């Protein structure tokens, strides 16, 4: 692992995020291009020189062939018209090592479960599926297997795998559509982006990020904290890397922060950020992270969503507020992904500038949520209460 950490250019002790997004993907990179033994050899060798060599090869694969293969399969998958409750796409020639990643991205883009199937020369397809909250894809796949549609299949609520004959794919699509159509429609209509804190840009700082990281590790059932910051104006916005939208935003408190929306350049969110007028005030929502590539660590936001601000007053949370009767204080504004921005319990949560928000510093952490829903029937962004 030390060799892999060195190859990944990490200069600090790895965090849970590093394990998930830096080290883990490098271990898996070999399998995506037919060299799955590299990860095993790296973790079992006792020769330091061999470990460094393998780690560098995995690093090259992560940065070279694997992303190109992912992009090729993703582009092909998105070009296929996938009707039905579950987007099922299949083709010959796709590398089976990247179908899980592509399924996840397709699910995010479409807002419904997705299954990507790579069909081999023998006519047998290997598929990987990803679901949305509220839709148990694994149970549906097990039911399809019991119905005789699959050679093999299984999974859990949010992910599943299948082995299927090519000529059975249309039957699988019809089966999933019949079984999940109502559930998917209901889940898509109840999408909610849950917030831990509402902040002014100055409140997004390394101390806040470190406090939040101390509550980890995060994952299913205990998601990483999400914050909303605003109102902000976009000072600079461009596209970098593999379709990432990078921005610098400034708030009414005089502070600016860096933001990035990954793989969003051609999405409604990315296009809205790139096209936003410089005097237009926005709220942005996402994960606060540490950017340690510069001379000193700085906080940044990994944007997951954004919405139009209501006024220039930094204390005006009308677009992020419900009153105590859970009626909207002012008419909420739709964001670019079809949700409204609303939160609750204004008495307990205040706009924060330099200090850490009360939800982190004073209230501790628990796993208790409270969701509100707007009067218009749209799903809401709701405040996540993590009380001791």
From TrEMBL:
Keywords: Hydrolase. This is DHHA1 domain-containing protein. InterPro entries: DHH_sf, DHHA1_dom, RecJ_OB, SSDNA_exonuclease_RecJ. GO terms for molecular function: hydrolase activity; nucleic acid binding. Residues 86-181 form the DHHA1 domain. The keyword DNA damage does not apply. The lineage of its organism: Eukaryota, Metazoa, Ecdysozoa, Nematoda, Chromadorea. PANTHER family: SINGLE-STRANDED-DNA-SPECIFIC EXONUCLEASE RECJ. Residues 195-305 form the RecJ OB domain.
